[in-house]
Amino acid sequence: MNRVSCPDCDLIIELPALRDGQRAFCPRCNHLLTHRAHRALERSAAFAMAALIFLILSNLYPFLSFEASGREQVMTLLQSAQELYKTGSQVLSFFVLAFIIIFPGLILISQLLVLMPIVLKKRPVIGCRLWARFIFTLGPWSMAEVFILGVLASLTKIASMATIVLGLSFWAYVAFSLCFLIAVTRLDRYQFWRIILPFPSPQATSGQTAATQGLAHCHICTLTSPEHLNHCPRCGATLHYRTPQSLQRTLACLITAVVLYLPANVLPITHTDQFGNNTDSTIIGSAIMMWHHGSYPVSLIIFIASILIPLAKLLGLFWLCWSVNRPNSPLPRQRTSLYRITEFVGRWSMVDVFVVAILVALVQLGGILSIRPGPAALAFSGVVIITMFAAESFDPRLIWDKIEESSRD
Ligand SMILES: [Zn+2]
Ligand SMILES: [Zn+2]
């Protein structure tokens, strides 16, 4: 039996040996502790290799081409970031480049560096644990599938004005994001670290929290170790009973996000110049316009991803922070699930920023028709990124600490 601590409620659980295809959940908060898949590391390495090849291919050919009024504009994947840079939106251009190419690329390289020696039964590479940490630290910041949704939304948006051709690189990028998704989801954090750096099970009593026994859960490699060590003996990450200043940091991020949420919705997200006529559109304005044009799916995607999700995430996290400090707050299991949802959905809000990046790169036909990013694009990406930090700073174990405290009193 291996003992593990639950990252969401800190309970020590005795984990039986799992067979292929089996999953283990925390009995208290229902967190998925681990799932064991058949030949997971080999398959993950194979898909990571395929994904890296497709990612390289997707940078070599035209991504999309746009033809209107007898003029054609061809866009490559890199240009989706480059054109933003040229229009003066350097920060936004860096975000797009990082989220769609650099971070997924770094994850794949790290994954191959760690997994290939295991698959080929060779000695591990130098800095193996650093590469392994990279995979899990950068994971939430890689947004390949969100970008694909952004491409589809922007195509529907401009399909009525021009002829659009999907280039070879577009299909390579779709293949990359599918392989990438499989490579990453095959890699179960607990099973992965157990194989690459085996460590004995901690001396702990199951059914009690790790913190009451002087132990801390490592958020990177899942090992439970004595907190006084300060650093995880397996992966080197800093050890804490609870995320330091969790509520203060979460609230600071949330307040910043609220401040940015206003300009993100009031100011224009794009400026369109058509035959000398300038039109500005806001996020809500473009969702309404798409609805009037009959593009209901795109209008709904923009409304849900850009308006509903950020707002629900802000309100949800504010409520979680408030409920944590209240005695006898009910529904800890449901509140933990709400936290997991806010953590999962946040990155999907980037879809509108990717739509802007694609439109700016693609629709550049001089005086006939051209699109530039508006100030709301940067403010909105700020909202998405800061609320992601807010969700990362919130420690769901605080929900359960209060319940334990109340039950002791
Ligand atoms: Zn739990
Ligand atoms: Zn660790």
TrEMBL record:
A GO-annotated cellular component: plasma membrane
Keyword check for Acyltransferase: no
Keyword Cell inner membrane among UniProt keywords: yes
Alphabetical UniProt keywords: Cell inner membrane, Cell membrane, Membrane, Transmembrane, Transmembrane helix
Entry similarity comment: Belongs to the PqiA family.
One Pfam short name: PqiA
Chain ranges passing through the membrane: 45-64, 94-118, 130-152, 158-184, 251-270, 300-324, 345-369, 375-394
Subcellular location: Cell inner membrane
Protein name, per record: Paraquat-inducible protein A
NCBIfam families: pqiA_fam (TIGR00155)
InterPro entries assigned to the protein according to its UniProt record, in alphabetical order: PqiA-like (IPR007498), PqiA-like_proteobact (IPR005219), PqiA-PqiB_transport (IPR051800)
Predominant place of localization: membrane
